[in-house]
Specification:
Elements lengths: L2 E5 L2 E3 L5 E8 L7 E7 L6 E6 L6 E3 L7 E6 L4 E6 L8 E8 L16 E5 L2
Parallel strand pairs: 2-10
Antiparallel strand pairs: 1-3, 3-8, 4-5, 4-9, 5-6, 7-8, 9-10
Length: about 120
């Protein structure tokens, strides 16, 4: 079965950290650019980070730039999202997805996982 599986979410206090994992099953991640998205209650799903297959560059939305770091471990077929200095507004379900490049629209990403819940609360 071809899919991505997210893990690592949880409940943390503001200012805390979490590391999310995106593991591939049935295909190899090193053939794709991988994006991280999140969806908060009542809001649209937004792209927050992407790591490019072509040049290895990382991209971030303004909302997470400087706090989140995306990385990939091709040997483990996994992409990570290190999240530091977490804020209340980071509360959302986080998803990863694959695409031919980071420059495509959200609808061109595939292999969506079920997501992992991240809750920031004091």
């Amino acid at each position: 079965q071809v899919q991505l599986v997210e893990s690592g979410g949880g409940l943390v206090q503001p200012g805390g950290s979490l590391r999310l994992s995106c593991a591939a099953s049935g295909f190899t991640l090193d053939s794709y650019s991988i994006g991280w998205f999140r969806q908060a209650p009542g809001k649209e799903r937004e792209g927050i980070s992407c790591i490019s297959i072509s040049d290895g560059n990382s991209h971030y939305s303004d909302s997470v730039k400087g706090r989140f770091t995306i990385s990939r471990d091709n040997a483990k077929n996994t992409v990570y999202l290190q999240m530091n200095s977490l804020k209340f507004e980071d509360t959302a379900v986080y998803y990863c997805a694959a695409a031919p490049s980071c420059g495509v629209g959200r609808s061109d990403f595939g292999f969506w996982g079920q997501g992992t819940q991240v809750t920031i609360s004091s």
